[in-house]
Amino acid sequence: MKKIVAVFFVSLLMLSPLLPGQAHAANGDKLLVATTFTVIADLARNVAGDAADVVSITRPGAEIHNYKPTPRDLLKVRDADIVLWNGLGLELWFEKFIARVKNATDVVVSDGVEPLPIRDGPYATKPNPHAWMSTDDVSIYVRNIESALTKADPDNAELYNRNAEEYIGQIKAVATGIENRLSIVPEEKRWLATTEGAFSYLARQFGLKEIYLWPMNADGQGTPEQVKSMVDAVRENDIPVVFSESTVSDKPAKQVARDTGAVYGGVLYVDSLSEEDGAVPTYLDLLRVTTETVVKGLAGE
Ligand SMILES: [Zn+2]
To answer: N or C: which end of the chain has fewer CB within 10 A?
Structure first.
């Protein structure tokens, strides 16, 4: 008899719908915020302070565009009060994923950003999703996060507002530092040659010219045609340094460096933060370390 009762309860658990908002009670009164990736999680933590808990569905270092969610990821979201995602076609897996969670409140944090188009490849003319790489655009993200948190938890509205203001101030200070550092590189030398075309927003803001092996990580990566066309562009423009990104293979970029005599300048961070003890545990670190690597490469330091 006991066994039958146990089986009954187990099947009840398995059948229970994935309802969001349950953690609000389970968690004391703290809001639980789920995010699709580590960059948005860090932005949200800065706005939330101690008033809300923030989790990222994907882990540090994960490839975000074509991520394959696991059943465990659904559990993370099941208890969340709100789910923040980038949108602009970044998380190709998200809509199908979130459809499996009943009553989930999801918020697109890039809402209001003026998107730059992807220039070529199968996604040509669609929005380039990497808008968080512009500090102007990321301030829109921060405001959207503030408003989502405030709507879900009005009691802490003042705190979320204060945190957002302060954080946007920190972001602006980092942007000024980047401008100062880049000013040592002559304008005609400001080329950003990378693996994924993920730096269009950063390049526009800081006056860099961008070339890349492939437009988006969702496409074919490192084909002979991509390598050849990058080799031609690096030679033609006399570009001294070529980079890759932390979430993709460095082989195609190293190949381009070998074939052209350019220096391989190391890893840039864009689609993910690192672990806590890694190079870029926060978004501000991601901006600082990535641009410093670019400046050092271009200046030959
Ligand atoms: Zn990307």
So the answer is: N
Q: Could you tell me the distance, in angstroms and rounded to a whole number, from the CA of residue 29 to the centre of ligand 1?
A: 35
Cα 174 to averaged position of ligand 1 atoms, centre (Å): 22
- Ligand 1 center to residue 4 CA distance, Å? 50
- Are 136 and 17 in the same domain? yes
| Ligand 1 centroid from CA 198, angstroms | 5
Residue type, 285: D
Choose the final residue of a domain: 115, 144, 176.
Answer: 176
Please check whether residue 253 is in contact with residue 242, taking contact to mean a CB–CB distance below 8 angstroms.
yes
Instruction: Summarize pLDDT for 179-205 with one digit per residue, the tens.
Output: 999 999 999 999 999 999 999 999 999
pLDDT at 23: 43
Whole-model pTM: value is 0.89
**Domain of residue 233, residue span:** 184-299
